Each structure stands twice: as C-alpha cells, then as structure tokens.
Amino acid sequence: MNDPRGIAPGSIVARPATRGVGRANLVALYTIARREAHRVLRIWTQTLVPPAITMTLYFVIFGKVIGSRVGTMDGFPYMQYIVPGLVMMSIINNCYSNITSSFFGSKFGRYVEELLASPMPSWVVLTGYVAGAVMRGVLVGIIVMAIALFFTSLHIAHPLVAVTTVILGATIFSLAGFINAIFAKRFDDIAIVPTFILQPLSYLGGVFYSVKLLGSPWQEVSLVNPILYFVNAFRFGILGVSDVPVWGAYVVMLAFVIVLGAVALWLMNKGVGLRS
Amino acid sequence: MPAASPSDAIPALEVKALRKTYGNGVQALKGVSLTVRQGDFFALLGPNGAGKSTLIGILSSLVNPTAGDARVFGISIHDDRGGVMRQIGLVPQEINFNQFETPFDICVNVAGFYGIPRSVAKRRAEKYLNELRLWDKAFQATRHLSGGMKRRLMIARAMMNEPKLLILDEPTAGVDIEIRRSMWQFITGINRTGTTVILTTHYLEEAEQLCRNIAIIDHGEIIEDTSMRRLLRKLDVETFVLDVTGIEGALPDVEGVRLARVDELTLEAELPSGRDLNSLFAALTAHGITVTSMRTKTNRLEELFVRLVERGNGDARNAKGGPQA
Asked: What is the least distance, in Å, from the CA of B260 to any CA of chain A?
C-alpha cells in the first residue's frame, strides 16, 4: 500500500526536525493572530466603535465641561491630564474583553477543540490570542488618542516609554482575560471581573486625578492598585509626569507579565477548563 | 527474508491498559487495550456511554487519561503530544467549528494550526471542499449550511493535515442516505490511499460494509476484538426476508425454522446457517403461500452486536449479584 506522501509502509514516521517544528509553530502563531485580527475588524461595530463613542463622551463631559472648572493638574490643563489615563483605560478594557469573549466563545462553541487537537504547543495558542487582543488594544488606543487630538494638543514626552507601557499593559490584561476565560463556564463569568474589579480599579487608578491629592492612608492604599502604575507610566510617556517612579512601574508591569504568563501556560498545559 | 507487510509494521494505533476515571467517579475506560494495523479500516462499536468517545478524546488530546498509554505510529501520547497530533485527523461527533466563519477559512486556519503554509492550505482546502461537494458553499458562513454539509465540512477539515490516521466519530449521524453513501465513497477512497481509518457509528450496516476489523467496547471494556469476517462467522443463524402472497390464517410449523409475519406480504424466516431451504418452501407451498422474492436480512452485524452487548450486560449484572431478566 503506497503512502500518498511517499512514506514506506512500516517505516517509523520521522519526527519533524526542530527547525521544522519551529517554523510550523510560527505559521500556527500567525494563523491564530490573523484570525483574531480578522475577527476584530469583521465586527468593528462591536470592537472599535463603542470605545470611540465612550471616550468621546468622557472627553466632552470630564475634559470640556467639568475640566474647564478644575483648572490644572500637575501643571497640565485637566483635559490634557486625563488623556493618557483614558487611553490606557480603553486599552486595558478592550484587551481584556477581546480575549475573554473570543477565547470563551471558542470554548462555548467547542471550536477550541480545533486548537487542542492540533500539534500546537500551549505557548503558541496563548501568544496568538494575546497578540490578537493586544492588536485590538493598540488599535483602540490609537483611535482614542486621535479623538483626544480634537479636544487638546499633545506632545509625546517619552515615546519609548509610551510605546513599551502600552505593549506591557495590553499584554498584562490580555493574559488576565485569558485566565478568566479558561475558568469561565458561563458568559456571566466573563462579565464579572470587568464590572466588579477592572472598572473600579481603573477609576481609582489615577485616570482622573493625581493620587498626590489623596490624603493618608488613601494615597498609600492606592499604591496597591496595579492599574495606577500602568496609567502613570503611560502618563509619564505622554506628558512627562507620574505619581510613581517609572522604574517601579516597569518592575510591576514585568512582574505581572511573567506571573500571569506562567499561570496561563500552566493552566493550559494542565488542561484546566479545557480538557476532561 | 520477506519484506515486512503493513500488518507486521508498527501499528497505526496501539492502546495499552488505558484507563479513564472522570472527576465524578465515572470509570469510562477500564484498562482498554487495542491494536489497529496500518492501512486498516477499523470499526469501534459500542452502545451509548460505552467509552468510545472517551477513547477518541484521549487519542485526540481532548481528554487526559488516568493511566495507560496509547501510541500512534509508535509515538506515545505521553512523550510527544504534538507528534501524535500530526498523524491524526479527527472528525468529532458534535459540530465544533465557528459558525460565523466560512468553510474555506475554517479549513485554511486548521491547516495553519498544523503549521501548513497558507498557500498550501488554500490549495488543500479547495481540493477537499471540492471532493466533498462543498466548494459552492466555501465562502458562505457555516451557520447557513445544512446538517449533512456541516458533517462533510468536518471531514474536509480533518483532511487538511493529510493524516495517516483518520478517526471518525459517528460521521454520518443524522445524514440522509445519499450523502451518507457519498461520504462512504470518500472515506473508502482515503483508506485506499493508505490512510488508516477508525470509524465509530451506530449504523451497523455501515460498519459491516466498510470495515475489515472491529472492536466492540461496552462499559469501558473491549468485549470483542477481531476481524469482521470472523465475527460474522460467529453468527450461527441466518435471517431471510420473504416477499409472499396468500397468507391466510396461521403460519406453518417448520422444524428448526422460526417463521414470523412482518405484514400481510412479508415473512421473516430465521434458520441455522447452512441449513437448506427446501423444507421451508415445501411447507409454505402446502399452506398456499407463494414466495415471490427473497433476500438475506442485511444487518447481520446488528444481531451480533445486540447479542454481545446483552451478554455483557448480563455478565455485569451477575458480577454485581443484581437481578437477572
């Protein structure tokens, strides 16, 4: 009996060389990321338009109407001061909701089995989904930033800090969303964290104010909020001011990436929420 | 020394003492061992809940085994999961693709998951969607496909990595006979090119016609593992369906023959294998019954299957000391 690929019957199937596997993993990674990007663009009215509308309202209400009475904060007009926080908040929320809805959707529709029954290692699946979510976060960030320019002018103080903070922040919340989706059994389970944890932490994370305005102990309590570090690092990148040392923010962000990435990989390798 | 035949070679599948106990305590597999030779067309049969899907789930990496091992073309599921997956194409029982994507995208993406470059994947998708008569639907959202089309799409998808072992878990469930036959034709063709096929089905006629070897699993244990021919030889009775006219009153008594009326124009006669039919025809003629045509009742495997499973149930009841029917 002839094998269509020319493998003689009875021969031990040679395992692909490491280079071959490496290339196969890259193709697989590209395929997942491409599929995720395609999904974001296909349902753009659900993925890109709502954050644009929400943030426009924030700029109008908090920036123009209320902000004009607030005056300056940390030496910047209030409108300008809240832009980095609002951009980061949009990125965080969109990365999180993208990966939870997409990965949980694949579990719910059972097409996650296409991934699980393929030769892809767990890190490829994870990286592919994270890349897709980061892509949406960055796209939303650019849209929100562009909208902000209708209301105020911006001079980017430290571009490298701004870019790395966006990438790290987006990665962190994509990983967190992925873990949420792994454990989720119902659609309610992916709505609980954004509503009851993410949103309050965002509002209390210095998006609208400098924590220096808070008295003790609330200033110290605020330092426990990880979003404070992401928002302030990004604000440093855009405006050049921050409530926390930037190196400290990088330490926090890198620690989150490592810990959340390790947890997500461990859960995937164990098959928690995925394999019986 | 003669060259090794495929049957002497490394098996396509070798399952050893495989056990699976789910979190709720259900023992789905109780030490299953099984060998499928390269190039075989193998039937894995069993009643609902027997453990078939769990076994397939373990082979396709969707279920973690509790103990035991399975080797696909010599590669252990414990040593090299990716290596095993590269050999396997899976057609699951339940529809499991994104209903918002098109058949073409689904096939091309799945090929990508196997590391197949996009240009090759596109050619393969076109080839298999054409062969399974789905090309005209290739760019429509899959939620608009009929049940039969969805089943065929899952076969096309499973072929994207051109597997050496194709596992089909009830691929023709709920599919009309015409499409079922076209699917049989496709799968038979795939088997002829050297791909080993493992089929689970509730249509025993399908297994009888297509498969060369068979295993029957029940209550998580293999209760029969043999060739289809040997298994059918075990059937010591044959059943004939007779189209007749002139049935009036009681049917004649014919020694050694169990005669049953199906309707006014049909009788079923069950008699030991190899026994001549002359006495039956003579008795029917004497009763004024004319046989206009006759055929063998095709589903012989079904009779055997029911017997084996019932025997298994009886053994299980005996082992538990429970009541016997």
From this structure: 47
